[in-house]
Amino acid sequence: MTRWLPATLWVGMLLLIFYFSSQAGSPENSAGWLMGLLRAVAPQLAEQLTPEQLHALNYALRKTGHGTGYFLLTLLGYWAFRRSFGLDARPALRWAILTSLLRAIIDEIHQAFVPGRTGTAVDVIIDAVGIALAAWLIRRRGK
Prior knowledge:
With about 140 residues, the chain is mainly alpha-helical. The chain has one domain (about 1-25, about 65-140). It is built from six helices and no strands. The chain has helices at about 5-20, 25-40, 45-50, 50-85, 90-110, 120-140. Helix 1 (about 5-20) runs antiparallel to helix 4, helix 1 packs parallel to helix 5 (about 90-110) and helix 2 packs across helix 4 (about 50-85).
């Protein structure tokens, strides 16, 4: 049972990314959620934010979420390929990078067909930064 935990978590992360990329009008939704959080945590700050500042903060958080999501996906993928599928470290890392990058590209293509969303190469680049960071961390830890 524990052998399949990494693969289960990896697939769960793949599904979570699909769920978030399927949300119509997602930037507006996250701006509302962010403003609600700010009102609860820092009400004075929330009242002082201009619409432009809220937009910039929302944009920065969304892009950070992209990189973080693919960082985690790559770590989980590596763990799954090592523990659940029994690959050696190098092939497991290659497969984790490849599948994460392919998922990033497919995700942006998918978003192009979701109302209120767009698929952009910039997001794939941000995802690739998260993937590269995870790969660097895995390789560094392996040495």
